[in-house]
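> tool_call: predict_assembly(chains=two)
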Amino acid sequence: MATIDQQSATEPLPSVVTVAHVVYALHTFAIVVGIVGSPTVIGSFLGSVPSIIAVILNYVKRGDARGTWVDSHYRWQIRTFWFALLWFVIAVLVIAVLGIVLIGIPIGIAILIAVTLWLIYRIARGWLRLRDRRPMYV
Amino acid sequence: MTEFVLPETEAKKLRDLALLVYAMQAIGFLLWPTWIVGAVINYVKIGEARNTWLETHFNWQLRTFWVWLAGMIVGFILLVVKIGWLVNVAVTIWAIYRVVKGWLYLNDRKPMYDALV
């Protein structure tokens, strides 16, 4: 691939790639638990903690990833986390505020479903490209 | 302070112990008593790690433990005024960060603080 030559100039440490895989795995676990067990308190707890661990892994290990093609995956993963959180908060606020006039509940749920689908897309696409050892955003 | 290099067999033993303590702290998020097991290992073995890069991990782990414990106690006291859970959540996320960072550094055999090396 000629397009990736520039970014893959330096080879990443094996642990940098491993951490990227672990982050996708943790988000996947969180999504599965979130879909299967979200009605329960423990389900939502187990669903959120892996994602928090994942984003911490990203920030701690990002320094080692700099200058390699894996850095684009770290950026992709970090942005996935923060935008998912942002839209989750927006959905909760919409339900809480507009819920009084009822219209808020279907809008909020629609946002939550859309975020879930977007999350699955981000994780699936990212993880597949990581398996092929290709960067994101090209 | 000059760094002291341990013979490989002893270094491996201490590395495994540091790893065990991180594992204990990680399990501690679900089952809190393992935090104490980790701290006991730290205090018993920190003498052997003195002046090596592993000592920085033992210190890191002990600080995590004490601040986590203090945060949890403060959080439970503040539950009376309904804001304790905020303290508990914050200190838990902070402790997860410490465990993850320490574990990754240990994997790469890096010290936690630069002062020693």
